[in-house]
User: Fold Cytochrome b561 domain-containing protein from Oikopleura dioica.
Amino acid sequence: MGLRDISVWGYSAAALACLCAGGAIGWQYLVEFRYGLDQDLSDTTTESYFNLHVLLMYWLYLLPNALGAISFRAFTFIERENAKRLHAFFNTIGFIASIAGFVLIYKHQQDTYGDYGHFYTPHTYIGMITLALYWFQWIAGVFLYLIPWENFLSKDNMMRIGKLKGGFIQSHRAIGYVCFALIAVSCLLGFITNYYYGFTKNDPNHEMKNVLPFMNKSLTLIFVGMMVLLLLIVNTKYVRPKPKDTYKPQETTTLQAVVPNDKDVEKPSSTF
Ligand code: HEM
Assistant:
């Protein structure tokens, strides 16, 4: 294991540890002050039903997305094709959870507050931008990089798809970085909004001195986890090394002019 791998694993472990710890403290607050999952979950107006939004959006959307973001860089011990499948798998969990989390919170807001309840905080505006961009990214990713087009298309059409794939890959990376940042910011804003609503409930148990330790620790850890993961995924030094034996020796001289070897490239070609 080289210095690159140690750094990538170090960043990944630190980021995931902070994100899990921050999410766990945020969840502990929901259990201690906001009924956790104890109330009737078939009643869409309860706090527990609302807490499903947090469960889906944080644990089944943010975290799988984070794992998907690091899977190419950290899992170099598996083939690139399998790393791609893992990346798609994690993001498919995120895709399904984000749809479920949205439908669920929309229903909760409607049933609890009527038409007044929709889209009135920065969390909801930024949340909608996040979902729109993420859903576009998932659909484009599946269409371009997961469907085995070679089984269905002619050679000419394959060339067209190949060009599209190559042309879009930098944008796919850039949108992926932005999506992760947006998801983390949406979660931070969501927690802040929810702590704030708690203070307005006039619940004697929900006093500043009781809630602040949860709020301070959870928000700080999630923020630090987000920054550490961003430091890893935007750093081109840590992109997955290309396989050394991609080209046969007799092809190297002709291909080199078009596709240079990794070791001849001063800066990795995949810039943000
Ligand atoms: C990427 C993650 C998330 C996304 C995309 C997201 C998206 C949304 C959307 C679109 C709404 C508005 C629904 C409506 O108005 O009908 C909403 C509401 C809400 N969400 Fe999230 N959410 C996320 C994570 C979280 C988390 C982790 C919390 C933590 C408690 C949270 C707390 C809330 C609250 C309190 C509301 C009520 C509406 C408000 O006052 O803002 N959300 N969310």
Notes: Helices lie at 3-33, 47-74, 80-113, 122-146, 155-199, 208-233, 249-256. The chain has a mean pLDDT of 90. The CA atoms of residues 149 and 158 lie 7 Å apart.
